[in-house]
Fold each of these.
Amino acid sequence: MPATDDLPLHDIDTAAAHLRDVLAQVVEHGPAHAALVVYDERTGLSRALAEGYRRNLPGAVFIDFDKVAPDDVLAAFRRMAPSDLVVLVQSTNFRLEAFRIRVELFKLGLKVIEHVHLSRMPGAQGAHYIESLAYDPAYYRGVGRALKERIDSASSATVDSGGELLVFASTLEPAKLNIGDYSGMNNVGGQFPIGEVFTEAQDLEAVNGRVRVHVFGDTSYLVNRPETPITLVIERGRVVGAENATPEFERLLEIIRADEGEVWLRELGFGMNRAFTRERRVNDIGTYERMCGIHLSLGAKHGVYPKPGFKRKDARYHVDVFAVTEAVYLDDQRVYRDGAWEV
């Protein structure tokens, strides 16, 4: 991969400021614990984040992944003590044979901050990514917990995507939080940026209606935005129609149907990250998933919520699609208006 241009100095300064807050407020890293930063220098964004961590972690060990052997990286991990911090800054996704990095680091009791697929966000998208790292605890924790409370007590949900209504006529699964608060959790940290509350219908067949989709994740895990939003027709929790579908989206549906028989709609995601909007996007679908608005998943795979009749070995796909979000209702209470959550 050829190296990309450096980001402007003001973006690097902004990254350093946001990472300072992430370190102090999100993972609560302090001087009593060691820090290890494994990074690469392949992209301007990876170099900017590495510099941001250098400014905030003067006593940390820094390892350029491309200049050492994999065994050296694994050995450095194993020298860490529980509650120490490991930061992974990856232009792609570091490969260490069968070692699933974040999972294994959590097993060692380490805190983890993971930045992945940075090469998918070139140019101005790097600035959007840096903006998405800003941490506002009052917003994420206050609004996030309030959303969870409303979701957990609701008997239904409705997504209005501009005249089309998708109705979840079912109680919802207990919502999961990704709001930068790990109190009471076994693991501290994860993939950044953060900002999401997610659930799904307890009765998947109680989901019916229509929803306009302005972005979907394609087979390369990249944001694909059709010129005209695609309208999905949902009956009993399954996609039975796709109006204005592009050839790439039709191909995606065909792949899911070929392996799973039908296309289920599962996740109901409440994205909270205000750095990303319908117009302000990044190419990496896993990053854009935090966009402030509703995202849904196509395919039978959603391991967080086991359901009767869905076997892990047979559920292969979880494809994120993003609804044109005009309004969201939990029961009859509107919780989303003018591009923002109101709870």
Amino acid sequence: MIDATTTDIDVLVIGEALVDITTTGTEVVEMPGGGPANVALGLGRQGIAVALLTRLGPDARGSAITRHLERSGVWVLAESFGAGPTSTAHAHILDDGSARYEFSLDWTASRERLPVRPRTIHAGSVAAFLPPGDEVVLEQIDRLAPEIVTFDPNIRPALVGDLDRARVRFEEFARRSTVLKLSDEDAGFLYPGLDEAGVLSTIGGLGPRLVAITRGARGAVLAAEGRVVEVPGRRVVVADTIGAGDTFMASLVADYPALHDDDLTEQALRELAVRAVDAAAITVSRPGADLPWAAELSVAS
């Protein structure tokens, strides 16, 4: 039976939304952020029907995040709102443009039945590891049973705790995933004894059809069905790296559903990777997690 109150959407993103407090020298700027929220933002800006299940407080920061996302076409689900302050991440920008983070984060998620029927669910970041919400993310994925699951661990070592527990949780998500992206730093944390090829093989063996590892300025590598494709980074003047990985992930989430079962050719993988790298280059060229709009991506392609 079809529930008339349930809306079909392209993507449901489940994970944290927070305020990035960025310190560069003596300047302090607050901007909406959080890895999953950034992915939702990037998808909304590409015109994709996307909803976000997160956790926001009844405060000015929660309202600012909601307005920011809604202006880019993101449906922030009512189940996202609760008591307690909205979470924050304090990003200290270093001389090379990279960021060091300090978090004040409370991650819970609604167990309620949601008013959406998504083709894809994207999850990841702190929300995949931090209790009590991490279990709820898995429950929602299993309940909604989408056609595609995408995952980005976006590891924050100070928040995920014990390595063995983090790896177990990561692999629970990996077994449910169709597309999985992680950074070279994530790979080094989760599998310190493996080289890149070993990481790709290990994760691919857990079930994902497509595995990507980003290498920062050195580009990325994608692996699927025995094919491995490497693409270089783009030369840009870097404002900061906030949102770079989220932009890459949003590009994969947006592009993957158009591929059919027999379409993961070497050329298709290369095109996926190039578009994702180009999108991330736009984000790093300007301050904060200011992900590109569809028109900007058309120019870059």
Amino acid sequence: MTLEQLRIFLAVAEYLHFTRAAEALFITQPAVSAAIQNLEAEYGVKLFHRIGRRIEIAEAGKLLQIEAQKIIDQVVQAERGLKELNNLQRGELKLGASLTIGNYWLPGKISQFKRQYPGINIDCTLANAEEICEGTATGIFDFGLLTGEVKPTLESYLDQEVVGSERLQIVVGKSHPWFQRPEITVSELDQTDWVMREPGSGVQQMFEQALQSWGVDPSQLNVVLVLPSSDMIKAVVENDMGAAAIPDLMVTKELQLATLRSVTVMPNKGVARQPLEILQKIWKLKHRQRFQTKIASVFEDMLQL
């Protein structure tokens, strides 16, 4: 009898469904069936009754469920004690973050954490939203940080919490006609060239959703260039090629130096005259059931500050 077999058995006992247990453990359904069959064969008992397409836990299964849970709880307690013996003097935190979050929002949080816990190694991987979700669900990352949407098939495995917000600024270079204007209207958005991120990026999703909420069809904009990073887009717009929507964290210095100008978008005439903003939440993802180390717990609290 192994710990892995016990974990699989407890999942089946909880869900009373082999496929759902497999999904919860991120393993295949045949692997779940094999683990249960091996346990039953080894001890000569029936842990579950197969009744048509459903299963019921047998008396032997009820007994094992109680004892197995005690064993797993003791293992978790032992792991926790060993990991916390060093009082946050050593250890590792694994993060997955989207490009903008990882390059501009997260470094300040990491620096603050490292000042307090210099012995903790932080491994941060920059990836797209789908990779972050999958990595957090499978335990590659302790936390995922992103602004994009969570993959629907993984939503049931991940807890989501807002830890900040990201704002997009529409910016232009010095020779652009909008550079000298304090504001434009929604109806003018299709009167310039645009440089945009690739379809599916978090920034592009965010911009297109804002356009649609303003009554603008994104396909009607004159897109002259599509690039794979907002840094590249920023450089192109600084060299006077069209307009772009860029996270404000990325253009702070350029706006201060006036190499770029942020353009305020106003509703069309006849509509309440309040500036239109492009805001999106920064999400922290973590697995709902995986054990959380003390290191991860402390960092999570710091993200709220």
Amino acid sequence: MDTATHFVMGFGLAGLSFVDPAVASQPMLAGAVMLATVIGSQAPDADTALRLKSNAVYIRNHRGITHSLPFLLLWPGLITLVLSPIFGLSDMRSISHLALWSFIAVAVHVFSDVFNTYGTQAARPITERWIAWNIIHIFDPFIFGSHFAAIALWVTGLIPPAPLFVTLYIIIVLYYIWRTVAHFRITRSIMLKDIKHDPTDKYIVIPTITPRRWNVVKAKKEGDYYVGQLNYGRLEWFKHAVSSRHPAVERSKSHPDIEAFLYFTSYAVAEVEELPSGYIVRWGDVRYLHRKQFPFVAVLVMDHQYHPLQTYVGWLSSEKLDERFAIEPGSMKV
């Protein structure tokens, strides 16, 4: 999920913690738990600081080790260790409740992230495979809005926190179940809607911010992709994406920035444009279609001897990329 949603979920879990008699009866513990759930809901994304080093390092590592199995215990341990003395918690009973709610906050963060398309390495160190269930959009208006409304009701004192947030999370669980079932049904039925379906085709159904609209990627056995959208039950293909076989594409794979991009995604295609000074190789992730473009890219500019000149990894439209690398409109795709 996005940072704002994790933030409101942290406060939501603080409200839910009032079902715990120890939290409800001890104001100091309740304050510690509130801070712990807010921090715990953000802690796994501490690797965002890697942006300061480079986008490529960030993309390769974000939602990696900080979302792994060992960190499910490490983050709560650190939060409990820091907050216990600050709030004067010295008895093991209070400390154990603080640790419990810290763990719940971290676990909810990691678990909610596996429902997105970006994915996490939540099973690391068992496997470094990126787990992405493609069920909930990175920003879901219902999840954010329902939390925001519940927090407002809590702050104004209209409804006590325990029944309010128990009700909220029952609704949220039912919402996740509904979206999971919807995703499963659409994935199973999508081939029936595709009149050009081949038995070897594989489909990836990706959520959008609108519940009835899904992006669809059809992976062919030849390695190319068809990218489209299922809009209120109507399937439409927008783009056929095929990787260039130019030698510059293969050479680009050895560059650390391109390696980082390809480590993160298994759904990348490359195109090459010939420039007066050499070549520009653009890798795009076909899962992220926006205005018939793939804005999540890794770009490498090379001279005619395939030596790297410039790179970029991140989110950028084709027009902005052309401006960034001063590409003339007359450049030729090869």
